[in-house]
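Help needed: design a sequence for this.
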């Protein structure tokens, strides 16, 4: 089976995440942070899901829960948009391939919320197109986190037609958020030997969202369902949470 890259490998057989090989930002977890804000933009025709039949509610609750878990020791104000009227659309440009340079250019044109000493901003864009690297279109990349910029790009056509796409979307976003924080060993120091060195900045724990592979769509849905419906909404494993806690101040 071909290995596919989700910020190196995540969903084999369905999709994956791209990694621009940049280093994450430990400063995203600075104890000085008093506000964490996610700015969500989408290309017309690539709107994020705001309702999930699997959970009979907003799928964004899953993402917000994981963000709050990451920042629980610092306790900043957290803002995660969950409806389209809290997000911003930009016109479709007719392009269906985006490399890192093109993604950063979109951010430069549309990003409104800066990161400061006390505010950490993340910019998430949903694109009606595919990832391109070294001039080659890769239809296996579901999302990409760009170094320490806080920019995350989601490629809607990769998973949009799949059953359970709303949950795949949120799980992929949580995974990329983890990379933006510096997981795994991507700027955030390890507190245990859980870095999967064979598969890039990923976790050896198969029950962690940062694990390199959940084999195919059925497995990722099973992974998410097992954690959500067994009162386990935090998708980061104990090892990754320990790395986060070591920086944010938990003993």
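Sure. Designed sequence:
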């Amino acid at each position: 089976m071909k290995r596919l890259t989700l910020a190196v490998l995540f969903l084999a057989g369905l999709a994956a995440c791209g990694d621009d090989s940049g280093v994450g930002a430990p400063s995203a977890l600075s104890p000085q942070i008093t506000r964490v804000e996610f700015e969500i933009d989408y290309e017309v025709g690539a709107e994020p899901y705001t309702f999930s039949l699997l959970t009979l509610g907003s799928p964004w609750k899953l993402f917000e829960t994981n963000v709050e878990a990451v920042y629980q020791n610092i306790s900043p104000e957290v803002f995660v948009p969950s409806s389209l009227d809290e997000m911003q659309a930009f016109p479709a440009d007719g392009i269906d391939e985006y490399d890192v340079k093109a993604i950063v250019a979109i951010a430069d044109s549309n990003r409104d919320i800066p990161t400061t000493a006390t505010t950490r901003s993340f910019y998430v864009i949903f694109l009606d197109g595919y990832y391109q690297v070294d001039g080659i279109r890769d239809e296996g990349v579901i999302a990409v986190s760009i170094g320490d910029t806080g920019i995350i790009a989601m490629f809607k056509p990769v998973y949009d037609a799949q059953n359970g796409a709303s949950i795949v979307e949120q799980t992929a976003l949580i995974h990329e958020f983890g990379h933006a924080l510096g997981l795994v060993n991507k700027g955030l120091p390890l507190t245990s030997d859980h870095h999967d060195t064979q598969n890039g900045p990923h976790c050896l724990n198969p029950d962690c969202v940062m694990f390199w592979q959940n084999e195919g769509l059925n497995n990722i849905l099973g992974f998410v369902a097992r954690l959500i419906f067994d009162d386990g909404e935090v998708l980061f494993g104990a090892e990754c949470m320990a790395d986060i806690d070591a920086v944010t101040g938990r003993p």
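The beta strands are 16-19, 35-43, 77-79, 88-90, 97-98, 119-127, 130-133, 136-138, 141-146, 151-155.
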